[in-house]
Write a structure and sequence with these properties.
GO molecular function, one term (chains A, B): D-threonine aldolase activity
Keywords (chains A, B): Lyase
Distance between the termini of chain A: 24 Å
Enzyme class (chains A, B): lyase
Largest interface: A-B, 76 and 76 residues
Number of helices of chain A: 12
Pfam family, one (chains A, B): D-ser_dehydrat
CATH superfamily of the largest domain in chain A: Alanine racemase
CATH topology of the largest domain in chain A: TIM Barrel
Protein name (chains A, B): D-threonine aldolase
Order of helices and strands of chain A: HEHEHEHEHEHEHEHEHEHHEEEEEEEHEE
Oligomer: homodimer
Chain lengths: 422, 422
């Protein structure tokens, strides 16, 4: 869990959700500033991660993966925060998963040296970014391919550069997102990859999360393991490194672990799972997912307590213009709104001893760019200037609203600032 | 239109949507890098503003406001880009409108010295940000108040600091967002403001955009002008500066100009309108709004052509996994999706002469964090690696996905990079 070798980043004086700080203050100096959220030392709205819950979640997921003897490459697109990547690596993660070439570059620039880019690499400038990084022999990288056309583009580009690009073939279900749909397409892509000395086929990648139902997911995953066995048996896989199979978003990692951990291809194999949202978890789509996991997966069932919601956005009540309505200074610029609106969790009146639970009948009914409409009851004890902590649904689209996220301890002291690079 | 006095900002090597550049390259060096969008010199997805259309839009809105002899304080929350604020000021804007204290600080740090914060100022750290800026006698600032409670908080804070905070009372329609609903509330706020030497009442502010219908908006605006006349007649307004009345989002600025430009309160008065989206315009909610404006407003009718959509997001086709479906490397992290999905406008195959119109039947059907699903026809001429330029709906929630937006000329050469501070 030590964060000590991670380079401290200067705080951005143009940023939101911070307190006052001297010029050239870095994240390493933040604890010494002694900001406290409850003492109104920082500008609201602010995004906060609770240190202890983050630590619990990091350890929970690592233990889960170890129980299945599979590797964890957390999807870094969730937080895009190298300071949080560092915590994931320090807790035992194999590497970091990312979605785009600029994300890979930002991670590399902050010390990440093993990346699974769970996406196609397309376009000359994006290939140039990756080529530059591949020249570092300490850097390990995989991307995915699902068409002969893309394989040929990559083969030509990386071959010309005198580089070898390790790739995984993506399989996808019919009606899904990316990925070859059938064995004919799979073989065509494998053959095209085989033609290019600039490419090395390392294995298979999937994203099962486009399917919604466990039976369909298990059937799909078995097709995937069959396909990898087939590629191995046909001698299609690279010889100078282990084979790799990768799947799992944040909703079905248990099922993927169960299916993939059974796999034996008669050769060295790394099984890499990629949940990303577990670090912060949420009270929406991922809480729903974890309820299923905790109920059905034999390993998760024994790991009480499960993942904890560790990310909240705090904001002020700014107006109480009419009965039953509070306007909160929290907008679509501050929290995800695509998978349920933020949920009032805590209330705090500056000067009081400690936050209390927000009344259960408080509810956001709409959000605008910079405002939220909160339904309240008549006669509720609420004032302009009260602070409300909101739980969120969909961490990915909450983190990307913040360039700097505060880490807080149990006393709401700010202990660190995690920069993001979206 | 000169941008010369604006301090050049270093390009962010962790950013997306850029090409390769040497260390310590600034926005002033970008043109010399000779990046061209069509030559694949920059990483896609990328957000681009078309220089000539931006220039047209800046001039169009300024001329519109001048025709009504009202001031323009563009809402800067749309772009949060000081380089674009500078262009708005250079074209004659009175100042910049902003929504939060950190936005005001970021603008101030980039040279903006006149700000209407069209929002309540709540919380100790936010007040501290503004107090620090008010100590600069060259800085002009107004915020809005709609409750005696907030007036008392502000009066106590700024009075203790020995500062005088100029405020506007906000009026809001019943069922709307912030703002006092009736005359009783208005008088209570005005009285509370009058009690505090740390506050100066400068006038009234409204946001009519929460109403959806012209008749209701005109009736509301007339109540607002009556209210300002009443405050002036009662001697409630500050003596050491002009009175101020402000309204207008990007959808109803014509109606606000028509109503407010009639106003005479028998004392110096500044009428300040705040559309923000006109700089980039769009092909969604604001095109719809401008169709009404161009059809009905006598000034706009004569200003052909009207506002032009100037912001596009370019992205690659990354997969063609099954008939009728293309997957595009463009996600909810790259463009607004809350008021209509992005619309394919142009297609370009690297190496070709010039982009052509995207087929009218190409249509996004869904977006995920990093991907878009595009419906295409069977047999369409489309390949992995093709570039597609998307028009967008809702610029505010597109700009906030980008830390750096490229300005391009008619030949798709990148002429400048505008940083944003969300």
């Amino acid at each position: 869990m030590t964060n000590s070798s991670f380079p401290a980043a200067p705080l951005d004086p143009n940023g939101k959700g911070l307190g006052a700080f001297p010029e050239s203050c870095t994240s390493a100096d933040v604890a010494a500033l002694q900001w406290n959220l409850l003492r109104e030392d920082v500008s609201l709205p602010v995004a906060v991660l609770y240190e202890s819950r983050v630590r619990h979640n990091l350890q929970w997921m690592q233990r889960f993966m170890e129980a299945y003897q599979v590797k964890l490459a957390p999807h870094g697109k969730t937080t895009m925060s190298p300071a949080l990547f560092k915590r994931q690596i320090d807790n035992g993660a194999w590497g970091i998963t990312l979605a785009t070439a600029p994300q890979v570059l930002a991670a590399y620039r902050h010390g990440i040296r093993k990346v699974l880019m769970a996406n196609q690499l397309v376009g000359r400038a994006n290939m140039a970014i990756i080529a530059q990084l591949l020249r570092d022999p300490a850097f390990t990288y995989f991307c995915i391919v699902d068409s002969p056309a893309n394989a040929a583009q990559l083969g030509a580009y990386f071959g010309e550069q005198g580089l070898v690009l390790p790739v995984l073939i993506e399989l996808g279900p019919a009606g899904g997102r990316t990925g070859v749909r059938d064995d004919t397409q799979l073989q065509a892509v494998a053959e095209e990859i085989g033609r290019w000395p600039g490419l090395a086929l390392a294995g298979i990648e999937v994203y099962e999360g486009v399917l919604q139902e466990e039976g369909a997911i298990r059937a799909f995953l078995r097709r995937v393991t069959d396909a990898l066995r087939g590629l191995a048996a046909a001698g299609r896989l690279r010889k100078n490194g282990p084979a790799l199979i990768s799947g799992a978003g944040s909703a079905w990692f248990d099922v993927v672990a169960e299916e993939f951990s059974q796999l034996d291809i008669g050769a060295p194999l790394e099984i890499v799972l990629r949940p990303g949202c577990y670090l912060s978890h949420d009270v929406g789509i991922y809480r729903t997912a974890s309820e299923r996991i905790n109920a059905h997966n034999p390993v998760a069932r024994k790991m009480e307590p499960g993942l904890q919601p560790a990310l909240q956005v705090w904001a002020y009540v700014q107006s109480l213009p009419e009965a039953g309505r509070a306007i909160v200074a929290l907008g679509k610029r501050d929290a995800a709104f695509d998978a349920g609106l933020p949920t009032p969790a805590l209330r705090y009146r500056p000067g009081a001893q400690a936050p209390g639970a927000a009344p259960a009948h408080w509810k956001l009914t709409a959000m605008m760019d910079q405002h939220a409409f909160m339904q309240i009851g008549e006669g509720d004890d609420i004032q302009v200037g009260d602070m409300i902590a909101f739980d969120i649904s969909h961490p990915c689209l909450t983190f990307d609203k913040w360039r700097q996220v505060l880490l807080v301890d149990e006393q709401y002291r700010i202990t660190d600032v995690a920069g993001t690079f979206f």
